[in-house]
Amino acid sequence: MSSGKSNLECFERAQRSLVGGVNSPVRAFGAVGGTPRFFERARGCHLYDVEGNRYVDHVMSWGPMILGHGHPEVLEAVHRAVDAALTFGACSPLEADLAEMIKAKFPSMDLIRFTSSGTEAVMGAVRLARGFTRRDLIVKFAGCYHGHGDSLLVSAGSGALTFGTPSSPGVTRACGAQTLVLPYNDISAAREAFRRFGGQIAGVLVEPWGGNMGLVPPVEGFLEGLREVTLEDGALLIFDEVITGFRVPQGGVQGLLGIRPDITCLGKVIGGGMPVGAFGGRRDVMEHLSPLGPVYQAGTLSGNPVAMACGIATLRCLTDRAYVELEEKGAYLEGAILEAARSAGIPGSVTRLGSALGLFLGPVPRNLEEVKATRVDLYPRLFHLMLDQGVYLPPSAFETFFVSLAHGTEDLEQTGRAFAEAFRALKG
Ligand code: PLP
Fold it and tell me: Which of 27, 240, 320, 408 is the most exposed place for a label (fewest CB within 10 A)?
């Protein structure tokens, strides 16, 4: 099945009525050049574009499709939900069903609020942290992405411990002035921030594995140190597990490391491909949220029954056995990439959290500066060498990529061979 249109024709048409031809900037291929692919269908680990080309997908919609596209049990649950209602704008039992499944894996989340995106979840968490503590400042880390809420679209200012500067026009300087941006994995910078601004910091927001600068693991003691300083000061620790949530059998990084944040943000996997986010945490904190408390947050489609049904079916399929398989597939791909890089003489390294992988053309980095010091300049060529061999990687060097349960041996071998060929070409 193909529409008879080319990707280029679709892109030209889209640009006439959509800003840049897209609804989310990275899709425009600006970071890698060339024409974005326009897709018609996805099944298992494969994407099919309008020209009838098939790709092994390692973007997986940026993480949600952990079971693969079109998983039969998920589709059946969604079809059933659609037949019952598209939306009530009122309560349904499905919301508590999904909340209970999340709580079973995230015991730090006593109470949960669903949203329609990860961005909204983080915005709600930040407002709640400020409302609960009656403090204004938020600490975040350079290279972590928390959605496009104003107070978080802020980059590090010049010099250590300065307030952030807006990273987009339209974000006010006042927003920057309430967000401290620190280097990731630098616990002494965090301790210094608390020495300088103790009693004024509402929350420390962190991706417990940095998933938006490639995939950067926390160094030992970093997250533990953040827990310590926040507890000492009375600030809240907020884990943004939008990418890492349900990536490992322990639930998230908090389960893996035994750290209990005050608030957790989730998205992606918990919606199984439908628009779902969530934030939740300590009962006394969450009870400050309306309707129990004064901090306002709401959503017309929050807890949407079709989205809830999709999330429930997805989490139901994530059995212990499924995580074993995801681990095996992730480990296989990690090995294949490292071997391909080694034999081509490319200095490549791979980081991995279960089925999520980061590829660096250089040593494993600890923060954004070190990520930028790797050969990110080679990524556009690598991306296209892979695309030409039918492998769809994220169209930016600063993204995590994924395997799903639907990636079979042949698919992973295809990706491995494509990396070997692409690295040889890069070297040559
Ligand atoms: N937090 C993290 C860690 C993310 O990676 C993302 C998106 O990629 C978000 C928040 C925002 O989620 P959404 O795109 O659903 O708004």
Answer: 320
Q: Is the pTM of this model over 0.90?
A: yes
Where along the chain do the CATH 3.90.1150.10 domains lie? 7-66+319-427
323 catalytic? Reply is no
Residues of CATH 3.40.640.10 domain(s) within the chain?
Answer: 72-317
Catalytic annotation present for 55: no
Report whether residue 21 contacts ligand 1, using a CB cutoff of 6 Å.
no
**Residue 176 CB less than 6 A away from ligand 1:** no
7-66+319-427 has which CATH code?
3.90.1150.10
3-class secondary structure, 203: strand
CB 129 within 8 A of CB 238: yes
DSSP string, 253-282: HHHHHT---SEEEE-GGGGBTBS-EEEEE-
pLDDT tens track for 94-133: 999 999 999 999 999 999 999 999 999 999 999 999 999 9
Which CATH number does 72-317 carry?
3.40.640.10
